[in-house]
Amino acid sequence: MEKENKNKAQEEPREELINPDETPEEKLVDAVEDLNEKLIESEKLEEPKKLLEEVIEKEVRYKGREEMEKERQKEILSSWVPKTKLGKEVKSGKIKNIDEILNKKLKILEPEIIDSLIEVKSDLILIGQSKGKFGGGKRRAWRQTQRKTKEGNVPTFSAFAVVGDENGHIGIGMGKATETLPARDKAIRKAKLNLIKITRGDGSFDSIGGGNTSVPYKINGKAGSARITLIPAAPGTGLVIGDQLKKVLKLAGVKDVYGRTSGQIRTTFNLVKACIDALKKTNLGVKEK
Questions:
Q1: Of 143, 164, 197, which residue constitutes the final position of a domain?
Q2: Distance (Å, whole) CA 123 – CA 37
Q3: Distance between CA atoms of residues 109 and 160, nearest Å
Q4: pLDDT digits (tens, 9 = 90+) for 191-226
Q5: Can you state the percent helix, strand and coil of the chain, rounding each to 5?
Q6: Which has the closest alpha carbon to 165: 99, 106, 253, 97?
Q7: pLDDT at 13 over 70
Q8: pLDDT above 70 as % of the chain
Q9: Does the structure show a pLDDT above 70 at 283?
Q10: Is 288 part of a structural domain of the chain?
Q11: Residue 8: is its pLDDT beyond 60?
Q12: 288 neighbors 225 (Cβ within 8 angstroms)
């Protein structure tokens, strides 16, 4: 009897799965639905794998570009023949610190001087705008202008670059060319030639702690009609300021600061110049009201 009951229990679920009243069309529809459910489940499992693979590919490409850029920079420095007295002293090893040059306010005429003394990072400020209806185009790094000639319109591209070592050195530069990449290279080259040194503080209004994550005191800067005020902030505050100014302060090595802007702040070029003007005043040692 027990064996017969077990056999019936095993057969019952099989009878539930097989419905003799179903037509062949209904069976086909059920089979297709089951197959779709299995495909959806498999896709859910594969989507994170695909995203992870894409992220890994992007990281590999980015690292590959960085390595290629470093190798190209090394080749340029190895084949560099200095033309100025300062460049020859740096090449020979007499000057090993960039602060020796900046403290004496010596004129830098070769960007290789900066590359051989410190490792700088570069970024582009968004000063242009792509075409869009009613002025709603997306911001971009290239500002395009046109000149009317007899042959037609001659386009020109401008780029605004900022360079720094994230350790108290910062510089900005503007470059123009008929193509985008030469304009970027010119801007980075000029930014290296305009490198300055700044003084950082610990985030208090008297900077007695000896830290270097913020500005030493409240400072004001101006350029054109743009005005900016940088206020010390405690460690962990972050950069409470506009996105384009974050690029400048980050490359300068400032991690915590409060910012207040006024005037025509949509003119990004003047706004960044006002920020650099404020950072220059950190070397004066005079607090502003």
A1: 197
A2: 48
A3: 19
A4: 999 999 999 988 876 666 667 889 998 999 999 999
A5: 45, 20, 30
A6: 253
A7: no
A8: 72
A9: yes
A10: no
A11: no
A12: no
- Which two structure tokens, joined as six digits, stand for 265? 């702040």
Could you tell me if 237 and 178 lie in one domain? no
How far is residue 193 from each of residues 103, 242, 264, 271, measured CA to CA in Å?
15, 26, 28, 20
pLDDT per residue as tens digits for the range 178-190? 999 999 999 999 9
Q: CA dist 62 to 66, 74, 185, 266, Å?
A: 6, 18, 19, 32
Report the CATH number that the domain containing residue 161 is assigned in CATH: 3.30.160.20
Mean pLDDT, the chain, as a whole number?
81
Specify the number of domains making up the chain.
Answer: 2
pLDDT band at 98 (very low <50, low <70, confident <90, very high): very high
Residue 203 backbone class (left: φ over 0; alpha: ψ -120 to 50; beta: rest): left
In the predicted structure, residue 257 carries a pLDDT above the cut 90: yes
Q: What is the DSSP letter of 137?
A: P
The residue type found at 197 is: K
The parent domain of residue 170 ranges over 120-197
Is 50 exceeded by the pLDDT of residue 37?
Answer: yes
Name the phi and psi angles at 211, rounded to 5.
Answer: -80, 175
